[in-house]
Amino acid sequence: MSDWIETKPFFETTAVAHLATLMRDGSPQSTPIWVDVDGERLVFFTEVDTLKDRNLRRDPRVAISVTGAENPYSMAFVRGEAVGRLEGDEALPYVDRISHLYEGRPYGMREGLAVWFIEPRKVWSRTYED
């Protein structure tokens, strides 16, 4: 996926991304998230049984968008599929890695968390230069 090379850096910053999942009736639901890159996948965490967690367990299709951390006119999006989920102690290394990226420390909550891995299917990004 050649566009992934240009898109990936947008998700390796402290910019807050927006995750769209699908409700039971097919309507979209959007939530701000902290996100990071794990190899060729995106990774984020949530509390177990939140709406986004339930939506993804039922339908793995997602869209994630982000604006540039330094330039809000630069942007990227990923449409993809949730391909993996960890919870409990298995999730904590990923939770802490993401929390370190955004807050510089381990995440305070230590229970009831789930990590999701997103495999990009379509990516797009645009960088605006001044």
From TrEMBL:
Entry GO MF terms:
coenzyme F420 binding; oxidoreductase activity, acting on the CH-CH group of donors
Q: Which UniProt keywords apply?
A: Oxidoreductase
Fetch the Pfam families from UniProt. PNPOx_N
Q: Which InterPro entries match?
A: F420-binding_dom_put, F420H2_bilvrd_red/Heme_oxyg, Pyridox_Oxase_N, Split_barrel_FMN-bd
A Gene Ontology cellular-component term: cytosol
Domain of life according to the entry? Bacteria
Pyridoxamine 5'-phosphate oxidase N-terminal domain: which residues? 6-99
Name of this chain's protein: Pyridoxamine 5'-phosphate oxidase
**Annotated organism of origin:** Microbacterium testaceum (Aureobacterium testaceum)
